[in-house]
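Re: beginner question about structure tokens

> Can someone show what the tokenized structure looks like for a real chain? I only ever see the sequence side.

Sure, here's an example I had lying around. Input first:
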Amino acid sequence: MEPTFRSLHPLFVAEVEGADLRQTNAQALLDRIRAGMDRYAVLVIRDQPLTDAEQLAFAQRLDGALHTKTGISALQKNRFGNEALTDISNVSEQGELMQAEDRRRAYSLANRLWHTDASFQDPPGRYSLLHARVVPPVAADTEFADMRSAYDELPGGIKARIEGLQVHHSIAYSRQTLGFEFSDDEKEKLKGAVQPLVRTLPRTGRKSLYLASHAHRVLGWPVPDGRLLLRDLSEHATQPRYVYRHTWRVSDLVIWDNRCTMHRATPFEDLTYRRELRRVTTLDIEPTPALAGGG
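And the corresponding structure tokens:
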């Protein structure tokens, strides 16, 4: 059975129906999912009871090499023993709810800022695949913003002004805006990376803003001027008409294209209710021959 796509938002996002990702090996089916990503940028796939190994394997089949240099890895070891599997949760290594003063919780609060996964690395992230394992009985949603449509609706003068600009992205910067403090050794591991402010998606040719809370300096501009520009563009790009809010169910898998979306977690009573998700992110590099057309 071929997967079908049901639109969830006027501009982007679709729910995929008729797909069991544990069994999705055929090139034609993978190509159809990639084509869905090109069109919608965010895909919601319900009822996917994936193990860690199955989630990792599907991400590799879909898009190749996996991102392992996560920001949190500079602070502590991965509790799953695999740096490609990012722990998006509010529980400790012992499986207990984190306390308010827990350093890892303070670090994770920055997920509530609009961001793009791994923009602070070179190469950055391409696709992220987030899988829900434990969902609290209260709203603990994730919001996504369409950076392609946001770019399309910019005035021509602003498009001309920002074309070709380069921006330094730093996860240390985004955390420090919330008062998180890094050691000198941690700062050394989190130097950041330079990315274009406007990206062109290879297969579709569409242009997109490439923004994030990690973006903090426009190269060649005075720092205050660059930060004002980035703030104004972010405020434009996260207006309600560009935003989709996803309400999680257990076994949901949501895939998004980091090159043309931003996302953020929404607040919930994280000191009271457990929430556990696993994220895998692929690297934005040229696809191998086996993944031709899938980059």
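Each token stands for a local structural state, so reading them left to right follows the chain. The helical segments are 27-40, 52-63, 103-108, 147-152, 156-162, 171-176, 184-189, 223-237.
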